[in-house]
Amino acid sequence: MTYAVELEDISVNYGELEALKNINLKVEEGAFLGIIGPNGGGKTTLLKVILGLIEPQKGTVKVLGYPLNETIDQIGYVPQISNFDRNFPISVLDVVLMARLGGRVRFFHQYHKEDVKKAEAVLDQLNLLHLKKRQIGKLSGGQLQRVLIARGLAVEPKILLLDEPTASVDASSTSQIYELLKELNKEKTIIVVTHDMAAVSSYFDSLACLNEKLYHHGDKHLDPETTEQVFGCPVDLIAHGHPHHVFAPHGEEAKND
Ligand SMILES: Nc1ncnc2c1ncn2[C@@H]1O[C@H](COP(=O)(O)OP(=O)(O)OP(=O)(O)O)[C@@H](O)[C@H]1O
């Protein structure tokens, strides 16, 4: 069988810190996989390994059965939005078009008509074409997230990786985004880092639990023992979101709802 992504014995260190340890993971083509784990558990690092942005100290990565350097263009990436300058003067269309440069960012680059056509087609597919001239800082959180998904799709990938795509959007945008991913999953393998356990149980077909090591890969319904191993806290806590963001460390009173 050819796997969309095949990680064999991957370890990643940042100096003294061991971020990933002996990870073996085979993701079937067509999967809709959620990756969960506590903050700092190595989820983003894992995505970056799959993308070739981080070279692991140990192990091999195959994408669609080939070494990563031969198939990297088959992967679309939707990064986590954390801080960005909302005044940066760039339009929605330009954000999507930049993906077509394949990492060769050049200022004052003239895009081919083909690139513009493709970027507009993807925006249209996601009902965003009417926003193409809008400066990205003037989008709502949900619109911005969908523009980033359009950007990931502009390279026409077979595999789409998303890092917490619903972290900064409201409930209605969250379901809109997951409905969109479900639709895209008819043709693509989708791998999502998320803290959203409700979405995992409604939309995903499999789950991976990561906390430096891979504790689980398979059924999306986790048993309490595995949850406790991965998060160090019971399952009902993580069902509400980030365990150690939302809840106080164990033994203390919860500070937030
Ligand atoms: N470039 C880096 N240099 C040094 N340490 C790093 C670097 N990137 C990540 N780390 C550390 O590696 C560990 C794993 O980080 P990573 O971002 O992969 O976790 P994560 O599971 O995605 O976390 P979160 O849920 O908070 O986004 C963390 O302890 C983090 O501080």
TrEMBL record:
Keywords assigned: ATP-binding, Nucleotide-binding, Transport
Domain ABC transporter: 5-237
Transmembrane portions of the chain: none
GO molecular function: ATP binding; ATP hydrolysis activity
UniProt family annotation: Belongs to the ABC transporter superfamily.
Record-given protein name: Zinc transport system ATP-binding protein
Native species: Halanaerobium kushneri
Taxonomic lineage from the root: Bacteria, Bacillati, Bacillota, Clostridia, Halanaerobiales
